[in-house]
Design a protein that fits this description.
This protein is of the alpha+beta class. It has helices at 8-24, 81-90, 103-111, 120-126, 141-148, 171-194, 202-217; strands at residues 34-38, 44-46, 62-64, 70-72, 96-100, 132-133, 156-159, 163-168. The chain has one domain: Class II aldolase/adducin N-terminal domain (L-fuculose-1-phosphate Aldolase), CATH 3.40.225.10. The protein has 7 helices and 8 strands.
């Protein structure tokens, strides 16, 4: 039996939990980072701007339409709302988004290097190499368009000189993706000190990318 779709209340609860877990698990410091999720009516719930995650309640979350108009909430939405809404607009199979400042992933973003998909699990859940998007100024529509264009066939992209952007089917999955990317970035950073990294055989990589596509779209 298939699981019933989450209600608006359940989606909001998932966003709040993921936001607080993002802080607790070290993906951000202070009030940095932000999350969003698609609601059953097609609008999006986003985290508010500059509010301590551990003090945040469901009433602090903000609901916007995909054009960015606030339709529910008493706080200002995250200054990166355009980034999340653009990804949701462009990719209807994406239902949750996260921007964080995971330490090792951000190291790659500062060097404007992608994170290679050299671990099988990484290919299955992320879809392949995590590319680094071109630099655009924080909070702009230009940044939103540039970053969102990179998650059509991947679950994550690096934001040059900034951090990580991850997407998924729900807030729990997007949190998993962010942690997986961060863990892999740390492993690769360390492995390069030991020697040259050996890639996965191409035929295996291709097969596992098929698993990713199926998990995301239901089609190989």
């Amino acid at each position: 039996m298939s699981k019933a779709p989450a209600t608006a209340q359940e989606v909001k609860e998932q966003v709040l939990w993921a936001a607080q877990e993002m802080l607790r698990s070290g993906l951000v410091e202070g009030t940095a980072g932000n999350l969003a999720a698609r609601l059953p009516d097609g609008n999006a719930v986003v985290t508010p701007s500059s509010l301590d995650y551990l003090d945040m309640t469901l009433d602090d979350l903000v609901v916007c339409d995909l054009d960015g108009n606030v339709i529910e909430g008493h706080r200002s939405p995250t200054t990166e709302k355009a980034l999340h809404l653009e990804a949701l607009r462009l990719h209807p199979e994406i239902n949750a988004t996260m921007h964080c400042h995971a330490k090792h992933a951000t190291m790659f973003a500062l060097c404007r290097q992608g994170i290679p998909a050299v671990i099988e699990e990484f290919v299955v859940f992320v879809g392949g190499d995590v590319r680094c998007a071109e630099y655009r100024t924080t909070g702009t529509d230009e940044l939103a368009h540039e970053v969102a264009s990179h998650v059509g066939d991947r679950s994550a992209v690096l934001m040059a000189n900034h951090g990580l952007f991850a997407v998924g089917k729900d807030p729990n999955q997007v949190l998993h993706v962010a942690h997986l990317v961060e863990r892999t970035a740390e492993i690769i950073w360390g492995a390069r000190m030991l020697g040259e990294i050996v890639p996965i055989p191409e035929e295996v990589n291709t097969t596992f990318q098929g698993y990713y596509r199926y998990g995301r779209t239901g089609k190989f």
